[in-house]
From TrEMBL:
Source taxon at top rank: Eukaryota
PANTHER family: E3 UBIQUITIN-PROTEIN LIGASE RNF26
Keyword Magnesium assigned: no
GO cellular component labels: nucleus
The protein's name: RING-type domain-containing protein
Coiled coil: 43-78
Species of the source: Hyaloperonospora arabidopsidis (strain Emoy2) (Downy mildew agent)
Location of the RING-type domain: 85-122
Length: 133
């Protein structure tokens, strides 16, 4: 798992903010200056600055989208792991231990002779109940 530190996030945030600031500054300058009065070379320079800034914004957006996708993938994986039997970690939990009511076993593990106590609380299992969702 890859976690981003506060410093990394802050740097990324600062870059995004400075890109936003530079876009806003460029737009405010362009809107305050009559483009009709600008020289051709000045217009080319402004166009290049705006394209560079737009490229930075797109890059930041793509990085952020990738981070969010990775985070979502991790959360989905964690949720899937929560559904697995606590003994074999291979099959889905379907058996409720009574009297403690922990839903923690798959059918295969629940009916093994060695499993006499709830793996969560260690209370003696009096009965098991199949649960389907």
């Amino acid at each position: 798992m890859v976690y981003f530190t506060k410093t990394t996030y802050s740097r990324r945030n600062f870059t995004a903010l400075s890109s936003t600031d530079s876009i806003q500054a460029a737009l405010s300058h362009v809107s305050s200056v009559s483009l009709a009065n600008c020289k051709f070379q000045e217009l080319k320079e402004w166009e290049q600055k705006l394209e560079n800034t737009l490229s930075q914004v797109r890059s930041s957006k793509e990085e952020r989208a990738l981070e969010l996708q990775k985070k979502l993938d991790r959360q989905v994986e964690e949720q899937n792991e929560l559904k697995l039997c606590v003994i074999c970690l291979a099959n889905e939990k379907r058996i409720l231990c009574l009297p403690c009511r922990h839903l923690c076993l798959c059918e295969t593990c629940a009916y093994r002779q060695e499993v006499t106590k709830c793996p969560i609380c260690r209370l003696e299992i009096a009965e098991v109940l199949a649960v389907y969702s």
